[in-house]
Specification:
This protein has 285 residues and is of the alpha+beta class. The chain has two domains: 159 residues, no CATH class; 106 residues, 3-Layer(bba) Sandwich (Hepatocyte Growth Factor). Helix content is 17%, strand content 28%. The strands form four sheets. Strands 2-3-7-5-6-4 form a six-stranded antiparallel sheet, with helices on one face. Strands 1-12-13-10-9 form a five-stranded mixed sheet, with helices on one face. The chain has a two-stranded antiparallel sheet with strand order 8-11. The two termini are 21 Å apart.
C-alpha cells in the first residue's frame, strides 16, 4: 500500500490558495494563509481531559435529586449518564419496564443498549421505567427523573462559530457542484508552471458555512492517485471523520514516470565561488 501523509488543521475551508500549495513547496501554513501553525486549539485539546476528569469524579451511589441534576452519574455497569431531575425527555419511549429504583431503570437500559440502542431513561420514582432511543429536549415534570447516556465528543476540533482562526471563506456558499455528505468532487486548476492539476474534495454532511471546521490535506503515495487514496484512508467516511473537510491533491506524472511529489530542497555549494545554492528537484521527474 502506498504511504500517505495527512495534515489536520484547525481551519475550515479552502480557497484558490490550495492551488498555490499543491504546485509549490512553501510551508502549508504560509500557503493557505493561516496565522496559526498549531494543530489544535488549546481549549479543544483540553476537552477530552476534562471529560475524563468528570467521568472519574462521577459517583457510584444512587443519584439523589436535586444534587445530581445536570451531573454525570456512573451506574453499576460502568456507564455514564447525565441526570435531569424533575424532567421528562423527547422523543418518547419505545418500551416500558418495571423498576424499583433509578439504578434498576438504568440497568434495564444498559441491557438493551446493543439490541435496541437504548440511550435514555425516564423514571417515575415508583415502578415504571421508560426506555428511549434518542434525546432532543427536556420538559419540566416534577414527578419524573431522566438520564441520558453520555457519549464523549471526538478528540479533535469540532465546528465552531466565530472561531478566531477561521479562514476568510467562512460564510461563503459552497460551489454548486459540491453536496455536503455526497460523493467527493474532482476539481481542476492550472498551476503557475502551466500544468493542469486536480484534486478531490469531500465536505461532511453536517457542514455549516458559518462555522469553522477542520481541513485535512491528505497526500497519496508514489504511483497512487486521489481516488485510490480516498478509498485507502477512509477519511471521507462519517464514522471516522464527521466534521472535517478533506482535500486529496494529485501528484504529477510525466510520460511513463510514476506519479510523485517534490518533497525536499537541496543545499549545494558552488565550487567556483563557494556560495550556497538552494536547488529544488523537479517535482515532475
Amino acid at each position: 500500500m502506498p504511504t500517505s501523509i495527512a495534515f489536520l488543521l484547525s481551519i475550515r475551508t479552502f480557497s484558490t490558495s490550495i492551488h498555490s500549495f499543491i504546485s509549490s513547496s512553501v510551508p502549508l501554513e504560509a500557503t493557505i494563509g493561516r496565522k496559526e501553525s498549531k494543530m489544535w486549539s488549546p481549549s479543544l485539546v483540553a476537552l477530552p481531559f476534562l471529560v475524563r476528569s468528570l467521568v472519574s469524579a462521577a459517583g457510584t451511589t444512587t443519584p439523589q435529586c436535586p444534587t445530581y441534576n445536570g451531573q454525570l452519574y456512573l451506574d453499576a455497569n460502568g456507564v455514564n449518564y447525565t441526570i435531569y431531575c424533575g424532567a421528562d425527555t423527547s422523543p418518547g419511549d419505545y418500551a416500558t419496564v418495571t423498576a424499583t429504583s433509578l439504578d434498576a431503570c438504568l440497568a434495564a437500559c444498559d441491557a438493551q443498549y446493543s439490541s435496541s440502542n437504548c440511550q435514555v431513561v425516564t423514571y417515575d420514582g415508583g415502578s415504571t421505567c421508560y426506555l428511549k432511543r434518542s434525546f432532543s429536549s427536556t420538559t419540566s415534570n416534577s414527578n419524573l427523573v431522566s438520564a441520558v447516556r453520555f457519549v464523549p465528543p471526538p478528540p479533535y476540533p469540532v465546528p465552531q462559530a466565530n472561531y478566531v482562526n477561521a479562514s476568510s471563506g467562512c460564510g461563503t456558499a459552497l460551489s454548486s457542484s459540491i453536496t455536503p455528505g455526497g460523493a467527493s468532487v474532482n476539481m481542476t486548476f492550472v498551476s503557475p508552471d502551466g500544468l493542469t492539476r486536480w484534486y478531490l474534495i469531500h465536505v461532511p454532511k453536517i457542514y455549516d458555512i458559518n462555522k469553522a471546521a477542520p481541513l485535512i490535506m491528505s497526500f497519496h503515495g508514489r504511483s497512487s492517485d486521489p481516488v485510490a487514496h480516498e478509498s485507502e484512508t477512509g477519511y471521507s467516511l462519517a464514522k471516522w471523520n464527521p466534521y472535517g473537510i478533506v482535500v486529496y491533491p494529485s501528484g504529477i506524472q510525466v510520460g511513463t514516470k510514476l506519479t510523485r511529489w517534490r518533497v525536499m530542497t537541496l543545499l549545494m555549494i558552488d565550487s567556483n565561488n563557494g556560495k550556497a545554492i538552494l536547488q529544488r528537484p523537479d517535482h515532475r521527474s
